């Protein structure tokens, strides 16, 4: 039998975790033959709520679950973790400026990056879900100088999956037939879902849809503002779909994509003029526990414009937290 893998999850009392933890324990993350130890981090006032969630996890009698740790100490939560899914973040409260939100989260991810640096597995794969996800991942990466920078990623997969679903519906084809979608940039409404290269059973989706007005006036805003539309309809932000995307992101990173493209926020290598180190959504393929950026994608004028908008936003966020990282 395989030995258990330690999976750390932060924000364990929150709504995304309420979907995510059960699926991890069920084997959806690392496979049905891989035992798991869950290491759950919360802020002190939420620890009691976590014990309630863990009572429910116990009541599922998951065969793969080999242990659960509950803590408010990042160095306990991240000890020997091979996977760290950082969901917990400070939400925007009433009257909070964007700059305050950035610095409140920078403080959290600085501490958590330093704890990962100190106690996690040297191969820990980090996924940041908590917003602003790209910049939070950047802060954690910068605060963990002894860990490989490429192990810090941000979640663009929910945007990727939202785009796949919209495209499949528009083109009238099954989601499973779609390949080669790219979502570029920041996990924010500025992100650029790009189906210029997308195929359905090998044929161009762009040619099949053949409607650039739909792309610009319907598709891009629908995917970009999907989070807000869900809050409007549900009264709460997307949680089960975010948990599902986190599972997809980590599972594909660990188990591979068989040549298929997925979108991940990863530290830039300078491609497409994105300054090195900025955590930027790009298409990747995964194999052997590593992701590889898809190279050689040409940018037309419209795509260049879209990339610039989302990059400018990320540069602004990076500059906004620079002082805190000193
Ligand atoms: P939530 O508010 O229900 O749960 C967040 C939990 O994190 C709370 O229980 C809170 O106590 C905890 N937390 C706060 N600071 C913490 C810290 N320093 N250490 C450990 N835990 C901490 O929020 P929800 O709905 O679960 O969303 C979590 C985050 O995910 C939010 O920032 C949200 O904006 C983001 N999100 C990101 C998506 C993406 O695609 N990247 C999609 C959907 C949500």
Automatic annotation (TrEMBL):
<dbReference type="GO" id="GO:0006099">
    <property type="term" value="P:tricarboxylic acid cycle"/>
</dbReference>
<feature type="binding site">
    <location>
        <position position="131"/>
    </location>
    <ligand>
        <name>substrate</name>
    </ligand>
</feature>
<feature type="domain" description="Lactate/malate dehydrogenase N-terminal">
    <location>
        <begin position="6"/>
        <end position="152"/>
    </location>
</feature>
<dbReference type="InterPro" id="IPR001236">
    <property type="entry name" value="Lactate/malate_DH_N"/>
</dbReference>
<feature type="domain" description="Lactate/malate dehydrogenase C-terminal">
    <location>
        <begin position="157"/>
        <end position="317"/>
    </location>
</feature>
<protein>
    <recommendedName>
        <fullName>Malate dehydrogenase</fullName>
        <ecNumber>1.1.1.37</ecNumber>
    </recommendedName>
</protein>
<dbReference type="InterPro" id="IPR036291">
    <property type="entry name" value="NAD(P)-bd_dom_sf"/>
</dbReference>
<dbReference type="GO" id="GO:0006108">
    <property type="term" value="P:malate metabolic process"/>
</dbReference>
<keyword id="KW-0816">Tricarboxylic acid cycle</keyword>
<feature type="binding site">
    <location>
        <position position="105"/>
    </location>
    <ligand>
        <name>NAD(+)</name>
    </ligand>
</feature>
<dbReference type="GO" id="GO:0030060">
    <property type="term" value="F:L-malate dehydrogenase (NAD+) activity"/>
</dbReference>
<dbReference type="Pfam" id="PF00056">
    <property type="entry name" value="Ldh_1_N"/>
</dbReference>
<comment type="function">
    <text>Catalyzes the reversible oxidation of malate to oxaloacetate.</text>
</comment>
<feature type="binding site">
    <location>
        <begin position="129"/>
        <end position="131"/>
    </location>
    <ligand>
        <name>NAD(+)</name>
    </ligand>
</feature>
<feature type="binding site">
    <location>
        <position position="92"/>
    </location>
    <ligand>
        <name>substrate</name>
    </ligand>
</feature>
<keyword id="KW-0560">Oxidoreductase</keyword>
<feature type="binding site">
    <location>
        <begin position="11"/>
        <end position="17"/>
    </location>
    <ligand>
        <name>NAD(+)</name>
    </ligand>
</feature>
<feature type="binding site">
    <location>
        <position position="112"/>
    </location>
    <ligand>
        <name>NAD(+)</name>
    </ligand>
</feature>
<dbReference type="InterPro" id="IPR010945">
    <property type="entry name" value="Malate_DH_type2"/>
</dbReference>
<feature type="binding site">
    <location>
        <position position="98"/>
    </location>
    <ligand>
        <name>substrate</name>
    </ligand>
</feature>
<comment type="similarity">
    <text>Belongs to the LDH/MDH superfamily. MDH type 2 family.</text>
</comment>
<feature type="active site" description="Proton acceptor">
    <location>
        <position position="187"/>
    </location>
</feature>
<dbReference type="Pfam" id="PF02866">
    <property type="entry name" value="Ldh_1_C"/>
</dbReference>
<dbReference type="InterPro" id="IPR022383">
    <property type="entry name" value="Lactate/malate_DH_C"/>
</dbReference>
<feature type="binding site">
    <location>
        <position position="162"/>
    </location>
    <ligand>
        <name>substrate</name>
    </ligand>
</feature>
<keyword id="KW-0520">NAD</keyword>
<dbReference type="InterPro" id="IPR001557">
    <property type="entry name" value="L-lactate/malate_DH"/>
</dbReference>
<dbReference type="InterPro" id="IPR015955">
    <property type="entry name" value="Lactate_DH/Glyco_Ohase_4_C"/>
</dbReference>
């Amino acid at each position: 039998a395989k030995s258990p893998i330690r999976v750390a999850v932060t924000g364990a009392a929150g709504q995304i975790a309420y979907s995510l933890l059960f699926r991890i324990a069920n084997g959806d993350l690392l496979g049905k033959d891989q035992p798991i130890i869950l290491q759950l981090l919360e802020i002190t006032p939420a620890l009691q709520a976590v014990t309630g969630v863990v009572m429910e996890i116990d009541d599922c009698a998951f065969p793969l679950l080999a242990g659960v740790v509950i803590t408010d100490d990042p160095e306990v939560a991240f000890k020997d973790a091979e996977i760290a899914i950082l969901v917990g973040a400070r939400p925007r409260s009433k009257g909070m400026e964007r700059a305050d939100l950035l610095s409140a989260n920078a403080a959290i991810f600085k501490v958590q990056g330093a704890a990962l640096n100190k106690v996690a597995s040297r191969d820990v794969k980090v996924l940041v879900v908590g917003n602003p996800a790209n910049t939070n991942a950047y802060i954690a990466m910068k605060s963990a100088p002894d860990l490989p920078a490429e192990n810090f990623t941000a979640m663009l997969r929910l945007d990727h999956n939202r785009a796949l679903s919209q495209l499949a519906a528009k083109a009238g084809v099954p989601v499973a037939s779609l390949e080669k979608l790219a979502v570029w940039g920041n996990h924010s409404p500025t992100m650029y879902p790009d189906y210029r290269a997308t195929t359905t059973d090998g044929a161009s989706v762009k040619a099949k849809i053949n409607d650039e007005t739909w792309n610009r006036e319907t598709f891009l805003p629908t995917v970009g503002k999907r989070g807000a539309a869900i809050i409007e309809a549900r009264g709460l932000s997307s949680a089960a779909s975010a948990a599902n995307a986190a599972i997809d992101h980590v599972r594909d990173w660990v188990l591979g994509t068989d040549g298929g493209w997925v979108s991940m926020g990863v530290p830039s290598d300078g491609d497409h003029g994105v300054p090195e180190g900025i955590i930027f959504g790009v298409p990747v393929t995964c194999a052997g526990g590593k992701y590889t950026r898809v190279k050689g994608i040409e940018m037309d004028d419209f795509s260049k414009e879209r990339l610039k908008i989302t990059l400018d936003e990320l540069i602004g966020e990076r500059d906004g937290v620079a002082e805190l990282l000193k």
